[in-house]
Amino acid sequence: MLELNKKVSYLRGLAEGMEINEDTKEGKIFINIIDLLEEMVLAISELETAQAEMEEYIDNLDEDLADIEHVVFENEKDEWDNEDTQYIEVECPKCKETVYFDEEIFEDDEEDLVCPNCNEVIYSEESYEISEDID
Q1: For residue 7, what pLDDT band results from cuts at 50, 70 and 90?
Q2: Residues 48, 1: contact at Cβ < 8 Å?
Q3: CA 99, CA 115: separation in Å to the nearest integer?
Q4: Domain boundaries, the chain
């Protein structure tokens, strides 16, 4: 930013050295262009400052969120890391995504398995009974 400011100051110095003033049509244009450039440099500088402040704020929020996630999800992570729990990998016939279910869910005859991605039924007791009857 300092370099842009120096360049605009250099242009203003050149205009003054060439004795360009607002008495002529061309001089009026040049002086107004230099004034506009100075305003643009100032606006860009303010944007850079605001951007830096926003980046710092977002970094702080990210750190705070990471701390909160650690506290909130610490117990859940322990549940997922439990070696006694067995998961069954299933490919959804609708969205073709691979999803994982706790094997205990398959023991519950009343509950349908629903894909968490597309919310379509992957497995239902009714469809299983029908397919057994066909065999």
Answers
A1: very high
A2: yes
A3: 7
A4: 2-80, 87-134
